[in-house]
Amino acid sequence: MAGEPLLGVLSAIIIPVSTIVIVLRFWSRFVLPFSKFGADDWIALASYPTVIAYCANNLWWANSITNPQSPSDASLKALFIKSVVFNVAITIVRTSALLFYRRIITLHKRTFEWLFWFGIFFNTAWFLTLELMRIFACIPLRVQWTPPLPDGSDNGGTCMSELGQQLLSAVGSLVIDLYVLILPLPMLRNLQLRMAKKIFVFLVFICSYFVPLTSLARTIIVIKQRHNTTRSPKWGNSTTTLWCLGELAIAFIGISMPAIFYLVRRWYHHGTSSLFSDRDYAAHEKPQLQTPESGESEDNRGAKLKNLGFSGSSRERLFRGKSMGGG
């Protein structure tokens, strides 16, 4: 199991990186002229300690493994906690992403509300399913942190197939991640923008939640481990844990990228002093785009365009979290 040292190194790196990301996210919100904080920000903040806890537990698990063929009590307990914490962390991060979409999208509001609540329900239901499956993976429960017998069988109980658990978790994560990624794209497609700007906006959303690739990679890794069908979940696997760590890290960083992009653009266009002020530099800029609504006055269209965020400092307002749409 040569992946433990790499897992420990990456976990140690992600802890300070995650701290920097959440600080930059809230710094970006502090310098906003309006609409500073939303539910997505507070949920992102709530996910931060779970990300740190997951990384710290990975360090504990990696350092507790002395003999991969004979796991210790400490390594088995760390493995159990690691799985539980990962499910909590990734669920909270996905919730923050969904809330961010709800905050900025007002086009097709009724349809989006249904899709949003379905996403929340699906994400929460899947979390509960995985947690129950993980907690009751072995009967009796103590078998999960009891070292196996010399022949590899479970000591004093029975456990679900490791492959079955990991495959179900990976496939479910892939489906949810794709749903979260695709959810806002049809609404964004209807924006009346030049192609270059439309492509940019699509890229921002894709980059801000580009997790399905890691879920897909984890699924492929698990499928390739078909020979592990009879192994109990207590054995663990550093390769799949590495992909879980990558999935969580990319998701956590991704949900804060729009806010960080806004901070970078603000610095680029208005200098360092703008990072310590909530001045609205775009307040007096004239809108230059046309909205899809017809029969509206110029003033009304201009106001809506300003809310859309694609006039003057166009992408700046998108990264602020201002609503995108006509409402």
What's a concise summary of this model?
The protein has helices at 3-30, 39-64, 73-104, 109-135, 162-182, 185-189, 195-208, 212-223, 238-254, 257-270, 298-308, 314-320, and strands at 138-139, 158-159. The protein has 327 residues and is mainly alpha-helical.
What percentage of amino acids are in beta strands?
A: under 5%
Cα end-to-end separation: 55 Å
Q: How many DSSP-defined strands?
A: 2
Determine the structural class based on helices, strands and strand pairing: mainly alpha
Share in helix? 55-70%
Major sheet summary line: 2 strands, antiparallel
Order of helices and strands: HHHHEEHHHHHHHH
Radius of gyration: 23 Å
Rounded mean pLDDT is 76
CA-based shape: globular
What is the overall number of helices?
Answer: 12
> In which order are the strands of the major sheet placed?
1-2
Q: Which stretches of 5+ consecutive residues score pLDDT under 50?
A: 229-235, 286-318
Folded structure, characterized:
The chain has 327 residues and is mostly helical. The chain is built from twelve helices and two strands, in the order ααααββαααααααα. A two-stranded antiparallel sheet has the order 1-2. The longest helix is centred in the N-terminal third of the chain and has 32 residues, at 73-104. The protein is globular. It starts with a helix and ends in a 7-residue tail after the last helix. Mean pLDDT is 76; it is low at 229-235 and 286-318.
